[in-house]
Amino acid sequence: MVVPMNASPNHPQLVGAEDCIRIVFPCENSRPGLRTFRDWQAKGYIPVHKIGRRTYFDPEQVRAALERRFRIHPTEVR
Question: I want to staple 45 with a disulfide (CB 3.0 to 4.6 A). Which of 12, 17, 40, 56 is the partner?
Fold first, then answer.
C-alpha cells in the first residue's frame, strides 16, 4: 500500500518500512533492499517513530535525512 506524500506538518504520515522504501525510492531499479534500509535505521541515518514494538517512518523526514547524509557536493575544477 503506497500513500501519497501530502501529510500536514503537524501530523506526519507514518508508514512501515516497505511502504517508506516505495515512497522514497519510486524507481524499482534503484531501491535499496529492506535489509539495507533496516541497517540505516540501526545506524541512526534515518529518523524512526516507535509505537510499542513497531517502527514507523515519515517518508518526508527519511528523504531529507538521506539527502543530508548521502548528497555529494561537487567542487569546482580549476
Answer: 40
β-sheet bridge partners, residue 26: none
Q: DSSP state, 60?
A: H
Q: CA 77, CA 40: separation in Å to the nearest integer?
A: 32
Task: Give the Cα separation of 64 and 10 in Å (integer).
Answer: 17
For residue 28 the three cell numbers come to 524499482
pTM over 0.85: no
**pLDDT digit string, tens, across residues 17-27:** 999 999 999 99
Spatial contact of 24 and 63, defined as CB atoms under 8 Å apart? yes
User: Are 16 and 58 contacting, i.e. CB atoms less than 8 angstroms apart?
Assistant: no
Confidence of residue 9 (pLDDT cuts 50, 70, 90): low
CA distance 13 to 56: 9
Hey, where are the domains in the chain?
17-70
